[in-house]
Amino acid sequence: MKSAADLLCEVPLLHSDDRVTRARSVLREDQYREVLVVDNRGALVGYVDISDVLRVAATRSNVTLDGFVREAPSAPVDASLERVGILLREARTDTVAVLGPDNRVLGGVLLAGVFPILVSRHDPRGSVADLMSTRVVSVEADDPVSRVLSLVNVTGFSAFPVMKRRQLVGMVSRRDLLSSGRSRRGTDGGLVVEAVMNTPAITLAPGASVREAATLLCRHDISRAPVVDGTLVVGILDRHDVLRGLALAEN
After folding, report:
1. Distance (Å, rounded) from C-alpha 149 to C-alpha 193?
2. Do 109 and 47 reside in the same domain of the chain?
3. Inter-axis angle of helices 81-91 and 111-121, nearest 10
4. Burial status of residue 57 (CB atoms within 10 A of its CB: 0-12, 13-18, 19 or more)
5. CA angle 60, 65, 68 (to 5 degrees)
6. Sign of dihedral through CA atoms 219, 168, 156, 31?
7. 38 & 143 share domain
């Protein structure tokens, strides 16, 4: 039976006395939504979230991470993947810190890595309508790509439905901006969302089973999908929502 050790991967680590500008640089250029914070011994202090550090004005270069650190979910190397899934579900983070002796961080287990395994082991319950979020934040196809980064900062979401003349035409994610080299504010160069979005959007129906939804998220390696009723986008379902439909028990 696989444990946290089997999915352990290297993750960026910062210190609480590091500047927010350093965290902002790491989070802008990497896929991570959060970064772990350690002390001088390498012991876990917590994590900082992208939506916190990217809100700090770039001119405030002397601000440290100390005031932005949140409690991070953590597990020992022999923790079951079910335990990791429970921690991810409760904290709604993308990373669980994996700890060795003396609370030292050995690396992390990422939601993207553990999600397909948990879905294959446990039958998700309910329908998409039962678990989806009805808070839909979208962008327009002709919006500048900097608007996507701004919304990441404000909402913490990693991907957004793209609308054109009130119709869903695609999805755009932070990963799309990173791939296009447009992850930094002020580097639009006239580029609009339509030029970097994925189309057509991978969608779900409210009445679809969570099992179907989980299979779709895994097959297309996407973190969230819009829920469409006719031509209306009525919700969003993401990996954390699916975890709520899994009957995970600690082993």
Report:
1. 11
2. yes
3. 120
4. exposed
5. 100
6. positive
7. no
- Amino acid, single-letter form, for residue 174: R
Alpha-carbon span 151 to 160, nearest angstrom:
9
Instruction: Decide which of 76, 92, 121 is a domain's last residue.
Output: 121
What whole-number distance in Å separates Cα of residue 185 and Cα of residue 223?
Answer: 23
Residue 169 sits in a domain whose CATH number is 3.10.580.10
Total domains present in the chain: 2
Q: What share of the chain is helix, strand, coil (3-state, %, to 5)?
A: 35, 30, 35
Q: Which residues contact 247 (CB under 8 A, 6 or more apart)?
A: 122, 125
Q: Are strands 139-140 and 159-164 parallel, antiparallel or unpaired?
A: parallel
**pLDDT tens string 155-208:** 878 899 999 999 999 999 887 877 666 555 445 567 899 999 999 999 999 999
CA separation, residue 121 to residues 99, 106, 246, 248 (Å): 25, 26, 9, 10
CA distance 107 to 98: 5
Integer Cα distance of 135 and 98 in angstroms:
32
Which residue is it, tokens 């097959």?
A: 219
- Dig out the tokens for 184 from the structure: 């930094």
Find tokens 């444990």 and name the residue.
Answer: 3
**SS3 state of residue 126:** coil
The residue among 197, 201, 247, 191 whose CA lies nearest residue 228 is 201
- The Cα–Cα gap between 109 and 68 comes to 22
pTM for this structure? 0.87
Q: Give the range among 93-107, 123-137, 147-161, 194-208 with minimum mean pLDDT.
A: 147-161
Residue 8, domain extent: 4-121
